[in-house]
Amino acid sequence: MARRSGFRAIVITGASSGLGAALARLYAAPGVTLGLVARNVDRLEAVAAECRTGGAAVQSAALDVRDAPLLSRWLEAFDRDAPVDLVIANAGIESGPPADQLVEGLALASDQVRVNLLGTMNTVEPLLPALIARGAAHIGLVASVSSYRGLPYSPGYCASKAGIRLYGEALRAALLPSGVKVSVICPGFFASPMTDRFIGPHPFEYRLDQAASIVKRGLDRGQRRIVFPRLLMLGLVCADLMPAVLGDAIVRRFHFHIVPG
């Protein structure tokens, strides 16, 4: 059983499957109100039902994080009912070049930026005024270890996750005087529907429950960075610090293909 958290009103995007759903289940407990956001209605309602069985009060919304005005209205309404003390911006998609092409094209690359990076901003920014006014809240931003070094087989994804990581690092420093904490979360591979579409090596892959427990423990402890596995992160950082000709050669050997979702 997961250790009881001090958070009482939690918003999680991308809550219908994978890490978002696993975190929702871990945080579900009596006295906790969950705001769960995702696009897939059926999967979202199934997760919401499980969380209610765990004792949590749940408000769910079938929303696309790209729809900033609609998401903002829902977040502000939820916060009025249950003042948010933890928001986890987790919604994300992953793509890459088709198997027979070198590049993924503008449509795929830009859509990942809209969902992953802009969707994160659309989730966080509407809540910031209330969080700052209360002076005690936590923000978790789900980036990726791939944010440390661009991989040639998923450039749009790496760009979007690097943007999330840097946005979170900057936001954390900016919010220090307010008392609002920010955790930048950079996981490697863990079992999920997204990972199932990743055809290639999965070094140091975690079970979904392991990944969710690591993230929850880090958030509960107020860690500024939650990165795992560290060996994979260090390898990517080293590749980035090397002369470009060497770093490029190394990451090209890490060959993979992402099946369209």
Can you lay out the helices and strands and say which pair or pack?
Layout: E1 9-13, H1 18-27, E2 33-38, H2 41-53, E3 57-62, H3 68-81, E4 86-89, H4 106-124, H5 128-134, E5 137-142, H6 155-175, E6 180-187, H7 193-196, E7 198-199, H8 208-220, E8 225-228, H9 230-241, H10 244-253, E9 257-258
Parallel strand pairs: 1-2, 1-4, 2-3, 4-5, 5-6, 6-8
Antiparallel strand pairs: 7-9
Features:
261 residues, alpha/beta, Rossmann fold, seven-stranded parallel β-sheet, 10 helices, globular
Question: Mind explaining what this structure looks like?
Answer:
The protein starts with 8 loop residues before the first strand and ends with a strand. The longest helix is centred in the middle third of the chain and has 21 residues, at 155-175. Helices cover 47% and strands 16% of the residues. α1 (18-27) packs across α8 (208-220), α4 packs parallel to α6 (155-175) and α9 (230-241) crosses α10 (244-253). With 261 residues, it is α/β, with parallel strands linked by helices. It has helices at 18-27, 41-53, 68-81, 106-124, 128-134, 155-175, 193-196, 208-220, 230-241, 244-253; strands spanning 9-13, 33-38, 57-62, 86-89, 137-142, 180-187, 198-199, 225-228, 257-258.
Which CATH architecture? Answer: 3-Layer(aba) Sandwich
**Class inferred from helices and paired strands:** alpha/beta
Shape: globular
Strand content: 15-25%
Task: Estimate nothing, just give the exact number of structural domains.
Answer: 1
| Low-pLDDT windows of residues | none
